[in-house]
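Our preliminary data section would be incomplete without showing what the modeling component actually yields. Below, a chain of 128 amino acids is followed by its predicted structure, encoded as C-alpha cells that our downstream tools consume directly.
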Amino acid sequence: MNLKSLFLVFTTLLSLSLALVLNPKITSPTAESKWRAGDQRTITWDTENVVGGPIPADYTGVIKLGYLDPKDSPNEHLYWELASGFPLNKGSQSVTLPQDLETRRTYIIVLMGNSGNASPEFTITAAR
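Predicted structure:
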C-alpha cells in the first residue's frame, strides 16, 4: 500500500469516527410519569443498547425540558436547560424542575450529546 492510499484510508476512518451519531433511549421519564414543578427528579437513559455506541467517555450531554403543542407542531419549545456538561455515558442525571411550570400533559425531556433524542410526552403539574 502506498502512502497516498494509506492517507486516504486514514482520512476515511477519521471521517467515519467523527460522524458517529449516538441516540441513547431515554428510559425516564416515561409516558406514565407525573411530576410536579419544583421537584428534583432523575433523568435516565440506556447506555448499553445505543445505536452508534458505545458512548465514548469524553462525550458530555445537555438535558432540556420542553413541551409539544398540537397547534405548533413540530416545535419542541425547549425553553429550559436542566443540566449540562455531565458525562453522557453515565446513564442518569439529577435535575430540579423549574418552580413556575404550568400544568401540561405534553412535556418532553430532550437529551443532547452529539444528537438529540426526546422522551415520550409526560405530565408535570404546577407547584402547589
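DSSP finds one helix and nine strands in the chain. The longest helix spans residues 3-18. Preliminary results of this kind motivate Aim 1 of the renewal.
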